[in-house]
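Action item from last week, closing it out:
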Amino acid sequence: MQTTDTQPVTPHLNDVTLTVSLTERKALRYTPAGLPALDLGLHHESTVVEAGQPRKVVCDLKAVAIGTVAEQLNRTELGATLQVKGFLGMFRNGRGVLLHIQHII
């Protein structure tokens, strides 16, 4: 395992936690395995420190939730602010990054 000045670097880590607002929710659908799935649009705004300077971050991203998380988000009001945890993957067509939501914190 490699280390940086402050923390170990784990190879192949893919873990995302974000505060987002729910901006879009498509109709609940079901996977071929019968699991509920929900495609979402999210908006994120924050201020982070980069190279010792504050930086405002604003982005919109697409996400998907599967299973009970999909059912819970299907009942969530548009505009609601949530803290979500998941991982990054690709769209099925291989174009663009998609957040896979695993938990609502």
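Closing note: The chain has one domain: 15-104.
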